[in-house]
Amino acid sequence: MAPQSSGGRGGGTRAVSPAPLAPDLRSADDRDKPSRNDSLASQLSTVVGGPVGDHALIGRVRVWTPLRVLFLFTLIFLALGWASKAGCIQQTDGPDGRPTLDWHNGRQYIAMCYSDTVPLYGAERLDEGAFPYKKQWTEETPDGGTETRYMEYPVLSGLYQYLGMQIAKTWDASPLPGALQVVIYFNVIAVGLALAWLVTVWASAMLAGRRIWDAALIACSPLVLVHAFTNFDAIATALAATALLAWARRRPALAGLLLGLGGAAKLYPLLLLGPIVVLCLRADPMHRVPGFGSGLMRVRDIGSGSALRTWVRRTPARIDLLSLRPLGAAAVTVAAATGTWIAVNLPIAVLFPDGWREFFRLNTTRHADPDSIYNVITSFTGWQGFDGRLIHGETPAILNLVSLLLFVAACLAIGYIALTAPRRPRVAQLCFLVVAAFLLTNKVWSPQYSLWLVPLAVLALPHRRILLAWMTIDALVWVPRMFYYLGLDRKGLPEQWFTGTVILRDLAVIALCAVIVRQIYRTDEDLVRRDDVDDPVGGVLDRTPDPLRPWLPELLRPGRIANRYDAPLIRR
Predict the structure, then answer these.
(1) Whole-prediction pTM value?
(2) Distance set, CA 298 to CA 167, 244, 291, 545, 565 (Å)
(3) What is the pLDDT of residues 462-474, one digit of tens each?
């Protein structure tokens, strides 16, 4: 096809198209345009030419597609995140003249470059080439005793460290440019974590649907700069995000498999099963209901009045939940997640039972973490905790019980909101609430755990200014944390400077939860659900009718449900 040209009636200058016109000239006008509807994005867009034009063809760019731009943003922030840790892999000469890491005089805290991966290489005996969970060693305890130790991480995270160690040792033995083995190990681990975060961004962008540019908040999060390489949590975020993507694409078995793998790396992906089950419990119990008249009738056609009463009267009292489509999908996901977690853990548990139990033992005997809400109270009040003073290794039984009960109570409240809200909440909204509740009530909130919330927060509450404010506060907690660990004898900061910023972070997360709950009850304020969108992460729940569920108690039924079944099905 020859290039098209045009000119004036008098045969003036002719403008020639640079290439043949595409056969499909449609524009993705339903895509969210942040440079036009968000003041922050509009101001930032001036760097690249300003907001998108009124008559621009959206979705027609061949090279710089939104996903590729997001990948570019992600790589830039990951590179900056690696640079923020690079100070802790610098070498110097030791007392014996041999090269060693330059961690002298608290450099890892002063430079704020600390990463768990560096000290764990020796602490977990990876430098000896030992297989995790099989290798045991003896450590001195603070009270002067000794204890037997094993790899302290869940199976998938431990095996990832073992794989990184094998690659590092192979590299070190090769003629390739070398460095300290721990430095090579850190870089190998960092490459894998960077790939995992790219997967997280990709899956989140796919889940965002028409709001794909929201994923830029994940790619450019301040928390990526600080914590992308602090620990191994990017593996879990990648598995959790891809699991939600599999659920959104109506592949419940794959979603369960990925959640099971995520649970074998970190605990939190398994928490996402709760929102899926509760929302499926609320969802349309049958797309076609047997027992009504001589044929079948859709639930949305029997939403109220005599038709509903007739269906309830003719339907058996016992409903086989697994035969219902949403609950059946949820059951498949839970079964796949459970089976996958067992399949990954069982070989290690059978071959090295003591090493496998180490993760659970340490989590049971661990005291309140420095930035848990319980330690914050202790820091400002001098309170000795629920269990009083404990020696090393003594289990804080009351603290464990209190944190568990608080989390259960929070989950019950979230479940009540999910079942009784006027309109079924979105999956991402409940997932964020559950994970946030876990972190706020748990006795441990390691700094990198905040990465768990980033993809869920963006999908649940895509308000850019609010999210950037929270992420910035959370990232800045790292500064007083490092100088608190430095110690007052080295001109560090008092504990209250650190715990004070922890309070600000917790309040910011609670504020996010409050806004999400408000939008659950006031769906007109939910940006995701504008333009006739229901739930991009919903999978089998997306556009599903929201029935009365007469088999549940009145207390657990949605409010303001009159005439909701007469509304047309919502398009995605």
Answers:
(1) 0.85
(2) 57, 28, 11, 10, 10
(3) 999 999 999 999 9
